[in-house]
Structure of Putative membrane protein:
Amino acid sequence: MTTKRASMLERYFYLFMSLLNAAVVVYGFSFTINQNLLHPSVQPPQIVYLHSVVFSAWVLFFILQSALVRSHNVRLHRTLGWVGAGLAVSILVLGYTTSTAVLRLAIQRQLPFPTVPFLFVEVMELVCFAVPFALAIYWRKRPDFHRRLMLIATCALTEAAFGRIPSLPAVFAPAGVDALILLGVVRDIIVERRIHKVYLYALPAMIFLQIIAEYTYVHQSSWWIGIGNYLLR
């Protein structure tokens, strides 16, 4: 049974994780999509709609790429990888632009929300996506590195979805991201009897950045306030 379980994990784990990430995104955003996008009381900036389309495209792209590898269509997977690179750049640009546009609107409406400190959380989320993705491109000829880094990058994007789950306090949203990545660690322990070095370096680094981001947000750190105010001008 242990051998059979390991074999299943080896063959289907990354496809399963792509579907699990999609499920988290759909579930998390289902709590806010109606009032924020479909029937908003305050019309959001138009870039929010473009960002939602590109973000959804990435989730579907990750499923497609995982399915292509599972079905041994590696050549097509590699060709489409450059489409993914374009999507990733779009996510970074739109992610930052959308965040600042929404937070500026919140400031204009004088909403009771710590907009400037929250921008740091948004920036760190993009960093936690960008760095693993860039490394995944660099190590695209090392499948063991590439697939784990792509998984980490995609999991990083689910923080916004976890933050929208009513039963989960927003400050604990990063823990949801870490839990998804830890499934990769468990997979390695079961299948390969060791933890891959990607997780040994990437997960502690991500947790460190998450702690800094949450501390800055909760305590509204003065060192960031000046920077954030400048960025939101």
Remarks:
- The radius of gyration is 18 Å.
- The chain has one domain: 4-232.
